[in-house]
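Case study 2.
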Amino acid sequence: MNFQDKSNAKNLNIQEDFFKTFIQGERFFKKYKFYILGIIICLLIWLAASIINEKIKEKNTEENNQIYLNLIQNPNNTEISSALKEKNINLYAIFLLNQLNNKNDLKIIEQLKQISQDSKINLLIKNIIDLGLHQKSLFLKDYSKILQAYNFLEQNKIEEARVLLTQIKSNSELKQIADNLKHYQGIN
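Prediction:
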């Protein structure tokens, strides 16, 4: 056998392997074509749903922000206020907290208490409302203890402040502040 015959035989083997692989791939596709098409269709539906969902979220965010800006400009407009409360209770709660800081009104306090009990409210905002209303806030309990201890220190109730400050755990981010309050007020 000469060199050219070996080269031709080698080329035939490569071509045979290629066609063999192609035929096996074709058989695999024929056998599983419905599964493969189903996966492709599911991926396309998921992609389309994700894009549509993202566009809806962007639109809602823009609408909520516009309502919020309108409410800031007209804080006494009950129509805009109720629209924001209906569309985004969290943003409405932030608005009320801002209003509470500007004017301490019993009506605002009552609305914040109601919102705090709502199950749709964000947990962090709920805890901020509870803290702002001087109610027990589970999430911000260390912060609440610091504020209470500071109030005790202003009233020269050092023992009560010490008890509160020692309740703050060593892994809390507020531990350094508690230690500083103890140190500067002479609490050991």
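DSSP finds eight helices and no strands in the chain.
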